[in-house]
Fold this sequence. Notes:
The protein is mostly helical. Helices cover 83% and strands 0% of the residues. The longest helix is centred in the middle third of the chain and has 31 residues, at 6-36. The chain starts with 5 loop residues before the first helix and ends with a helix.
Amino acid sequence: MGHSSTRAAITYQHATDERRHHVAKQFDGLARGQLKNGSGTQRTRKREKDEQ
């Protein structure tokens, strides 16, 4: 990776892995929040049923 030492490369790699894990957890939370609302099809069907 062009680092001056093996230790610097390992430190960078560890920090990158932690950041990826953090981003993945954030996306997981967003996705799970959207799934609680149901899909677009499910929401439309519910709305149509409520209007009848």
